[in-house]
C-alpha cells in the first residue's frame, strides 16, 4: 500500500499494524533502500513501513509487502515526527524498530533466530526497550565508491569505542544510562556536531500511551533509555550503518579532508553476528 502522507496512514485502520514487531525505515536518499527493506524482512519483522520521497521507486516484490508513505526526511524534526506518529497509531505494547536506509540490524544469533524470538525473550525479562549500538560501516576504497557505501567491501572499526556517564539536569550521573562513542563520529569528530557524536540508540522499544522520542534518540520515559535492568545484564543489538560514512563523504566541509576511512584498526565486516559479539559490539545477556 502507498499513502500520500503520514496522517493518511495513521488515520487508516486497515493500514496501521495491529501486531508487531514493526520496522519503520526512514529513507533519506536512494542508497541501498531495497537492501535495507529486504534485510528487515529477513530479520522477521511482521510489518515494514517505509517513509520515503515520492520520486523513489521500489522493486515489485517490495511494493507488495512494504507499506510506503510519501515523506520528506529533510523537513525539520522529520525523525521524531515519523516515529512519534507511528507510536501513537499502533496498539500499546507493540514492539517497534526504526532505522534509516543503508542501516542493517544485527542481533545475537540472528542467523538462526528471528527478531520476534529475541523480543519475546526480552519482554520476559520485563524490558520494554533495547539498547542498540550504531556501528559505522565504510568502503575500503573511496575512489571506487565515492559515497563510501560498498556492501561487498564493507569495513568497521574493531576498537576505539568507549562510554561516559550520562549526567542529568542536576549534574549527577543517571542510573543505568551511558553515552557511547566510537567509530567514524569519534575519529572525525571535528566534522560532527557534538550533539550527534553518540552511537547509542534505543532502536527497539515497546509502544505505550504518551511515549515520545527526542532528537537525540532518547525517550521521555527514562527507563526506556537504560542499557539494562537492575538485577543483571540484558540483550543489546547493533545497527551496522553506512549513514555516517555517507555524510562525511558527501558533505563539502569534510569530503576533501578524507582520502580513506581505513586505519590500523579497520577490519572487513563479515555480515555475521558472531563478529559483532566477539568485538563486544552487542551482548547476548542471558539469552543462550
Q: What are the SSEs and their pairings?
A:
Elements (H helix, E strand, L loop, with lengths): L1 E2 L2 H5 L11 E5 L6 H11 L3 E6 L7 H4 L2 E5 L7 H12 L5 E6 L2 E4 L8 H10 L4 E8 L1 E2 L14 E4 L4 E6 L5 E9 L1 H5 L12 E7 L30 E5 L1 H8 L15 E3 L4 H6 L10
Parallel strand pairs: 1-4, 2-3, 2-5, 3-4, 7-13
Antiparallel strand pairs: 5-12, 6-13, 7-12, 8-9, 9-14, 10-11
Can you walk me through this structure?
This protein has helices at 6-10, 33-43, 60-63, 78-89, 115-124, 183-187, 243-250, 273-278, and strands at 2-3, 22-26, 47-52, 66-70, 95-100, 103-106, 129-136, 138-139, 154-157, 162-167, 173-181, 200-206, 237-241, 266-268. By secondary structure, the protein is an alpha/beta fold. It has two domains: 1-101, Rossmann fold; 102-288, no CATH class. The termini are far apart.
